[in-house]
Amino acid sequence: MTLSSEEDQGRRPSVRPQSLMFSFLGIYVLGRGTGVYSGSIIDVFARVGVSEEAVRSTLARMVKRNLLVRHRHGRKVYFALTPHAEEVLQDGHRRIWETGAVNRDWDGSWTLVGFSLPDSRRRERHDLRSLLTWEGFGPLQSGLWIAPGEKDAVAILAPLGLDGHVTVLKAEAAKPTEAADLVRKAFDTSAIADGYRAFLACWDTGSPSPSAPDDLARQLMLHTDWLQLVRQDPHLPAGQLPQDWPAIRAEKCFRSLARKYEPVARRIAEEVLDVLDLS
């Protein structure tokens, strides 16, 4: 789906158009009260090798999922964010720019969520697990998930309406259990570290994404790769991670490149994007 040379293909995983769309919307639409003409979105995505058909399909799916809304202006169709999309993108913005790659403020507590749903509610069980993963929880054992620190479980679980099937507790590890044991059992730290190492292999080089035509394309791919990482990172306590934890170096790399690409990328976007003021 995305533009890549043979060298890029060896270093970057395939990225779905919807993931790129979230990055695009978060950078150029979030908080602006605007809609963007579909034709100009297609022009931007052509720079990262996404076809017109894939862009139109992605936009249609996001409308159906209540993430985008269409606005007609003359013969053109503009796409704007829904309140739900604003919330999702604001959460992504916080994870990228505020939360940080490592949890240095852990107070030693854990939030526990236990649940039991029958097979007849398999879809809801899947949605609950997906939501818990997104919020930094890991499965300690069957039906019991944990996350470091105090989580706002009421706000997290509210969209699913499963209060009667869920138990929430706040606890601390007690002998013979150690915090390191909980991290090891509930979270695949090797896979998390491998994700950051793959990011570094792609971006911490002399010439990241050499096949990209310009800094706008590089910006979208960089932000997409990084957001996918931080979405999957449960933000584990720094004291329970190896001293050479690769997330620290990866975050420095991301921030440095993001600052580097931003001025030219924004200038290109201003030239390419057809924007409708909806405020």
Automatic annotation (TrEMBL):
SUPFAM superfamilies: Winged helix' DNA-binding domain (SSF46785). It comes from the Bacteria. Residues 16-83 form the Transcriptional repressor PaaX-like N-terminal domain. InterPro entries: PaaX-like_central (IPR048846), PaaX-like_N (IPR012906), PaaX_C (IPR013225), PaaX_trns_reg (IPR011965), WH-like_DNA-bd_sf (IPR036388), WH_DNA-bd_sf (IPR036390). It holds the Pfam family PaaX. Coiled coil: none annotated. Residues 187-270 form the Transcriptional repressor PaaX-like C-terminal domain. Residues 104-183 form the Transcriptional repressor PaaX-like central Cas2-like domain. This is PaaX family transcriptional regulator C-terminal domain-containing protein. It comes from Streptomyces ovatisporus. The lineage of its organism: Bacteria, Bacillati, Actinomycetota, Actinomycetes, Kitasatosporales.
